[in-house]
Amino acid sequence: MSQDLIYLDNASTTPVDPEVKDAMLPWLGEKFGNPSSLHSLGREAKVMIEDTRDMIAEFLKIRPSELFFTSGGTESNNFALIGTAMSFLGKKKKIISSPVEHSSVLETLKFLNKKYGFEIIYTGVTKSGEAVIDKNQTDEDVCIICIMHVNNELGTVSNIRSVRENVPENILIHSDCVQSLGKIELNLSELGCSTASFSAHKIYGPKGIGAIYVKKNTPLETFI
Question: Going edge to edge, which strands form the sheet with 67-70?
Fold first, then answer.
């Protein structure tokens, strides 16, 4: 990287931190085992993955069994929205979201509308970019509310806990937490969402790795 470069786009992506790179290198070299294999190389890789899962889950205040690794925030958002929506197919048809969500959310909602007939209801937004949910919108046909935790362009922090407390418990809440992880305090057990998405490259990790939180007993159909 040029010594003259002043980089001011960390909300978009970050360079891999040297500590992260050093921690990864053995698993890109001599410790190359498939974690699904039964031999020693595979078992060693499996232990590393589960130790990593435990560490991240502890940081997020969730159960390790509620955390799944993905290829990034886009896959996590697709997985959360399509997976939960499919569990409501033929039962409920309304999804509430905000018009200032990340494109990976907005495009997925368009897909659910066009392909499966889900009705997408967009909230109002304050001048600072926070979604305003009208209680009159949350009727018995609403299955999912999708509100990002920290806006990727404005930095606005939405009060997901307040949303959870003011809508029926049977409505699932998905929150894109890509911009909040590692930047503000994030306790998922208190936040109130059913699913949440994360991405490593926003916080000095490598591109091509992310995670999804799925709260225990959340109905979610796998599509991979």
Answer: 67-70, 210-214, 195-199, 172-176, 142-146, 94-97, 119-122
pLDDT of residue 18: 97
The answer on pLDDT for 1 being more than 70 is no
| pTM of this structure | 0.93
Residue tagged 């304050």 (tokens):
126
Are 143 and 91 in contact by the 8 Å Cβ rule? The answer is yes
How many beta carbons lie within 10 A of that of residue 11, not counting itself? 15
Beta-strand pair 119-122/94-97: parallel
Phi, psi of 143 (to 5 degrees): -110, -30
For the stretch 66-76, pLDDT in tens is 999 999 999 99
Q: Can you tell me the distance from the alpha carbon of 100 to that of 91, in angstroms, rounded to the nearest whole number?
A: 27
